[in-house]
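User: Sequence recovery, please. Input:
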């Protein structure tokens, strides 16, 4: 799975720590999502969706091997 979390976060001028606080996770979790080491749960994805004001599939996309 591919994501544009880092880009979306930059558009809102948020640090990893600030985004983490907004959705109730650690900064390390945000880093792990951005580097594709962690696939977020549905709940976490929906929380990110709310922060970005976009649908989940606008910042998470499937790749051929998924």
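Assistant: Recovered sequence (66 residues):
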């Amino acid at each position: 799975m591919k994501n544009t979390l880092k880009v979306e976060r930059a558009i809102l001028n948020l640090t990893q720590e600030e985004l983490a606080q907004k959705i109730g996770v650690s900064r390390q979790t945000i880093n792990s999502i951005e580097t594709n080491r962690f696939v977020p749960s549905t709940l976490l994805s929906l929380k990110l969706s709310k922060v970005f004001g976009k649908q989940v599939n606008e910042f998470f996309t499937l790749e051929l091997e998924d």
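The CA atoms of residues 16 and 30 lie 6 Å apart.
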